[in-house]
Specification:
It is a single chain. By secondary structure, the protein is of the alpha/beta class. Helix content is about 45%, strand content about 20%. Strands 1, 2, 3, 4, 5, 6, 7 and 8 form an eight-stranded mixed sheet that branches. Strand 4, helix 3 and strand 5 form a beta-alpha-beta unit. The chain is elongated and about 100 Å long. The chain starts with 9 loop residues before the first strand and ends with a helix.
Length: about 240
């Protein structure tokens, strides 16, 4: 499993342009102490329980506790507001349950999404190890059910991806149903070349002048126009 660098914690709750914006950055984990810096179901409930506006969650997380992630998934899925999750960096492991609970998922350019099998530490005799294995298989089935409902992909395909710990680019996340769209920068209109602007203005002025000139002067006017345009192109 590639090592994912720790994502700095951020939890902000604000209203912008009639939408409720919740920024979530960090690990997904149950909050045991008041000062725990983690993404957790309790804080999300407290932030969104009374919200009736559209909700936008800006998410960047390497994941964490599968059960906490599933609790957040079910909370968002049942929320009466329209919920959009915008991935701003990474949505991996348990964080993908947060995206799965949204009505719409937007991937920013360059972002990633990753899914994998559940994991745990085991200690004890063979019966203890078998119990842990049974639990992991059950958890994987629960995860598969969430992904299958979200993406429309077959369970066999999803299981194969989870077994290999599959990483998806933003475009691949959309292609395979984990997200709805990729947010791309708006193309900026290129400023018109100054020389071209002057050239166009001169051409219009010359054309207007030609309308009032005798035909015998038209050749001379066109010659002057071409000469001026050539000088402008050279930057003279």
């Amino acid at each position: 499993m590639p090592k994912v660098k720790k994502v700095p914690f951020q939890f902000t709750n604000e209203i912008q342009n009639g939408k409720h914006i919740l920024t979530l950055s960090g690990n997904v984990q149950k909050k045991y102490w008041r000062d725990d810096d983690v993404i957790n179901a309790k804080d999300i409930r407290e932030a969104l329980d009374t919200v009736t506006d559209d909700i936008v969650i800006k998410l960047n997380s390497p994941g964490g506790d599968v059960f906490e992630g599933i609790e957040i998934y079910n909370y968002l899925k049942d929320h009466p507001s329209n919920v959009t999750v915008e991935v701003t960096g990474l949505a991996a492991s348990a964080a993908t349950f947060i995206t799965a609970g949204a009505d719409e998922v937007i991937m920013n350019v360059g972002t990633s999404l990753m899914i994998h099998e559940a994991s745990a530490f085991a200690w004890g005799n063979k019966q203890d190890i078998q119990k842990t294995l049974n639990a992991l298989e059950t958890i994987d089935d629960s995860i598969l059910a969430i992904y299958s409902e979200k993406t429309g992909q077959s369970v066999d395909q999803l299981r194969e991806w989870m077994n290999e710990e599959k990483w998806f680019t933003a475009d691949e996340a959309v292609e395979f149903g984990f997200a709805n769209s990729v947010k791309r920068a708006e193309p900026q209109e290129e400023p018109q070349d100054i020389a071209s602007m002057i050239q166009d203005a001169v051409a219009v002025a010359m054309a207007m002048a030609n309308l009032s000139q005798p035909v015998t002067n038209q050749v001379e006017q066109e010659s002057k126009q071409k000469s001026l345009i050539a000088r402008l192109r050279k930057g003279e």
